[in-house]
Amino acid sequence: MNILRLLSSRRERRGVLLCGAYGMGNAGDEAILHAILARLRTAAPEEPVTVLSKNPAETQKMHGVQAVHMFHPHRFFLLARRTRLYISGGGTLLQDITSSRSLYFYLLTIWLARALGNQVILYGSGVGPIRRPMGRKWAAYVLKNCVDSVTLRDSLSLKELEGLGLSPGSARLTADPALAVEREDAATVDRAMVQAGMEPEGRYLGFALRPWEGFAEKAPQFAALADYAWEKYGLKPVFLPIVPAQDLPAARLAAGNIQTAPCRFVERLDAAPRQAANLFSRMEAVVSIRLHGLIFAAAQGVPAVGVAYDQKVSAFMEDSGQSTYCALEEVSFPRLAALLDRALSGGNGPETEKLRRAEAGNGLALEEILTDLRREGEEN
Asked: Which of 196, 239, 258, 307 would be a feasible disulfide site paired with 289, CB 3.0-4.6 Å?
């Protein structure tokens, strides 16, 4: 590590390097990136920002920021030895449920960024579950020794951090950065609706479904709910894919069982930074398996029915003051219909302002670390 620090000290340090699951076609992650960039442009407009992305050209076009491929180690090294701040987040990057390789990749980038002289902030992140002993060991080491500031989006992540041996005071409990993404003006939202094939004055029930073990056998229950919402409330079902490559097949599987309701499919939600916020703002309610479907709805004050395939979904529903959720294995048409009735009754909507205040903690932590960096620069 001493050699890395020596190499990194040859040039004047300037700029921010930002890493997350960007450029992967996930509307939730793109909203997170938009929110972080907005914070940086306000707090440190003088700092150049580079984003590590799976699709640098798309990231540059959508967000107007310099981007390089996230799996290009030479470029990473050259950048990290010159920047002063490394931001890892948000989303649940540090987990080994989907892949241990992903966990080790993000841990390695944090370790290298720190070794090359950067201050490091874990920003609005989820942590865990990390189940494999080696993964837990390395996560604990990196988080204890290589991270200067931690903000977490949910209480489960804080418990995971404590389970790794970190003190509760080492992290700040905030909320998902995507909650800071606001819809645009009414005319722009109208245009977004038309481009998505919907009438701006229409009444809609949004579905954000995803494939998961057990989903296929439950798909007809979601279709029955779509028919119910159309017949009882006059709500047209519209399928909103957070990750189109995965979610559109799941949506079509469910929609294939719809009997009466005229449904719509949105092809993608990550074509523009605030597209998801715009479209979710016009839903009267949302039924979502996807966590960011629930987050987008809550950010716009739209009531939701959550379907928990993972503990992070039920945790968010509780944190947002909504009890209208059930586990995926418990899904049935009567259960979904009862939850939708309750959500639409107005008695169990999201605590949007509370969530926004919690999310603001991410920005405060960022401002604090930037202030420290400025002070350090002045002293040197």
From this structure: 307
